[in-house]
Amino acid sequence: MLNLQHATIAIIGLGYVGLPLAVEFGQHRPVLGFDINQARIAELQGGQDHTLECSPEQLRAARHLRYSCQAQDLRECQVFIVTVPTPVGEANRPDLTPLIKASQTVGAALKKGDVVIYESTVYPGATEEVCVPELEKASGLKFNQDFFCGYSPERINPGDKVNTLTKIKKITSGSTPEVADAVDALYNQIITAGTHKASSLKVAEAAKVIENTQRDLNIALVNELSVIFARLGIDTLDVLEAAGSKWNFLPFRPGMVGGHCIGVDPYYLTHKAEQVGYHPQVILAGRRINDNMARYVARNTIKRMLQNGLDVPRCRVGVMGITFKENCPDIRNSKVADMVREFEAWGAQVVVADAWADATEVQHEYGITLGQITPEQPVDALVVAVGHNEYRNLTPGQLKALTCSAQPVLADVKSLYDRHALAAQGFDVFRL
After folding, report:
1. Is 352 exposed, middle or buried (0-12, 13-18, 19+ CB in 10 A)?
2. Quick check: helix, strand or coil at residue 209?
3. Are strands 381-384 and 170-172 parallel, antiparallel or unpaired?
4. Which of 210, 258, 313, 377 could pair covalently with 333 via S-S, beta carbons 3.0-4.6 A apart?
5. Is 77 a catalytic residue?
6. pLDDT of residue 5
7. What pLDDT digit, counting tens, does each position of 275-308 carry?
8. What is the mean pLDDT of residues 387-405?
9. Distance in angstroms (rounded) separating the CA atoms of residues 178 and 256
10. Is 120 exposed, middle or buried (CB count within 10 Å of its CB: 0-12, 13-18, 19+)?
11. Inter-CA distances, 84 with 325, 387, 408, Å
């Protein structure tokens, strides 16, 4: 029987997914944390994590964990867990480049009896159709004869300090029944919430991709309802609170869908569906709605500015928040950037502030320079795009002090504030 209980593990990719996994395993057994980013390795060796997923105390507790960006160090490992990103390109097509390169790197280190487990979100079949050939080519070994594979999709929720890695049930799978048992036992060493052993790699891959597709569609529904209710002169939150009085009404809220999963994973599923001759209808419709919400917020804010007599090309618009979610520095696939570009297309000067985001990362990723929104340099319209605690705790009076117009527009994207209290301060309020 294959036993991985004492194998040395390599975690490939030390981002929001890989680092917590490496730290948790590193408390119990030898682990090599591998990343091609030398600056990231140096940061972690210095005991710091800029993603804030792991505290310095947690990093120190992983006493069996060491870090490296040298591929030859992988040869000492027997289990390889791949946690690299799987983004989409400009045409919303899966970009498997990081996954392919990681497979090539791991393949060069593979030995007989080794196991490669993928956690990166992919479409059903990607492990066997895309990754395995790269592993075989780089290693010269035969799949399910010399080496084996598993798939255990990540369920990390960036910034969530309650539903952490060990407290979320883990899906596991393996390329043979024996490997499936071994992979399941491996994760059960650290996952206190338990595991669910899927019947195949494809089932595990499909389970992950539909988790976020389901959320995406539910958010798309309430986003579309928000557009309809705006035309009917009804406040969306009032409607959702009323409907939520029924026990089985799902508590989804409208918003801009970004991040590394919900706004990306459905495109992996639809890509594979089209490969097998089916053109998805509902999933892509939901994606179109959600992808358009940033422009919808910007255009409604501009419409209200014009109605209030403001000359948009001569106005300053303040945007509070650019991360894809509250109380988290993660800016991946942030739709706030789309909103900023829409304001700029109308000629407005946009000032973007964020209490959590890294200014260098924002500049590199989106070409946006973070600034400050202050009473000394007020704006004509204010968009509170992200519900960071720093913004959530502002009073209507404090918000008003950041603006200079007689009747400034405030777009409360996340419905953080009492709209009546805002109106009492003179705000023209728009919210989803």
Report:
1. buried
2. helix
3. unpaired
4. 258
5. no
6. 82
7. 999 999 999 999 999 999 999 999 999 999 999 9
8. 93
9. 43
10. buried
11. 21, 28, 44
Question: How far is Cα of residue 3 from the mean position of the Cα atoms in its chain?
Answer: 33
Mean pLDDT to the nearest integer, 385-412: 93
What's 138's DSSP letter? H
Catalytic residue among 261, 315, 328, 404: 261
pTM over cut 0.90: yes
pLDDT above 90: residue 143: yes
Question: Within 13 Å of residue 254, how many CA atoms lie on the same side as its CB?
Answer: 28
- Whether residue 399 contacts residue 410, with contact meaning beta carbons closer than 8 Å, is answered with yes
Strand, helix or coil for residue 11? strand
| Alpha helices for 308-401 (secondary structure H) | 336-345, 359-366, 389-392, 396-400
CB 336 within 8 A of CB 319: yes
Residues near 178 by Cβ (< 8 Å), separated by ≥ 6? 1, 2
Start-to-end CA distance of the chain, whole Å, equals: 56
pLDDT score recorded for residue 1: 60
* Long-range interactions of 283-287: CB distance < 8 A, separation 24+: 283/213, 283/216, 283/217, 285/220, 286/216, 286/217, 286/219, 286/220, 286/221, 287/92, 287/216, 287/220
Q: Measure CA 228 to chain center.
A: 28
What does the DSSP assignment read for 217-286? HHHHHHHHHHHHHHHHT--HHHHHHHHTTSTT----------TTTTTTHHHHHHHHHHHTT---SHHHHH
CB-based contacts of 174: which residues, under 8 Å, 6+ apart?
148, 149, 150, 180, 181, 182, 183, 184, 201
